[in-house]
Amino acid sequence: GSSLLTGPEGLLAKERESLKRLKCLRRYRQRYGAEALLHRQLRERRLLASDGTAQQAHTTRSSQRCLAFVDDVRCSRQPLPLSRHCLLHICQDTNQTLFKPCQGSEEVPCNKPVAANLSEEPCCPLHLRLPPQMYVPEQGLAVPEELEAAPSDLYLSAAELQPTESLPLEFSD
């Protein structure tokens, strides 16, 4: 190993070839010139981007709270993803379109946020109006008396279902 570091003088041809191959292998994956500069800049940008987002996400998650105020006290709940308000106060956000307040009824007003789906008047489960019943069962289905007392001679016994000598087997069913 020490003779390789001294230089090409005093080395055999085989050792010089080995030294040349060793130097090539050591810098095989290294970049030079403009390529090295661009690679270093890209690595620095990636490092800043990943560290910046990880640090920013950590600080925003730990300190982020709902922006709504209740009796001059800020709400302590976590906001919904990609929003600044929690589920209770999401209707205070004028830019959101996913939730609407429940209309409630005349007797009991309600302002619970409800997902604004395809219905025109979204309601919470408490104030949901069910549609009228579509199936009305008949009161009493009268069975005629002649069907109730069916004659027993209509039914055949197991012995009578067996094939006889007079009928071939294919017609016995």
From TrEMBL:
GO terms for biological process: chromatin organization. It holds the Pfam family zf-C3HC3H_KANSL2. InterPro entries: NSL2, Znf_KANL2-like. It is found in: Mitochondrion; Nucleus. Keywords: Chromatin regulator, Isopeptide bond, Mitochondrion, Nucleus, Phosphoprotein, Ubl conjugation. It comes from the Eukaryota. GO terms for cellular component: mitochondrion; NSL complex; nucleus. Signal peptide: none annotated. Its main location: mitochondrion. Non-catalytic component of the NSL histone acetyltransferase complex, a multiprotein complex that mediates histone H4 acetylation at 'Lys-5'- and 'Lys-8' (H4K5ac and H4K8ac) at transcription start sites and promotes transcription initiation. Required for NSL complex stability and for transcription of intraciliary transport genes in both ciliated and non-ciliated cells by regulating histone H4 acetylation at 'Lys-5'- and 'Lys-12' (H4K5ac and H4K12ac). This is necessary for cilium assembly in ciliated cells and for organization of the microtubule cytoskeleton in non-ciliated cells. This is KAT8 regulatory NSL complex subunit 2. It comes from Ramphastos sulfuratus. The gene is Kansl2_1.
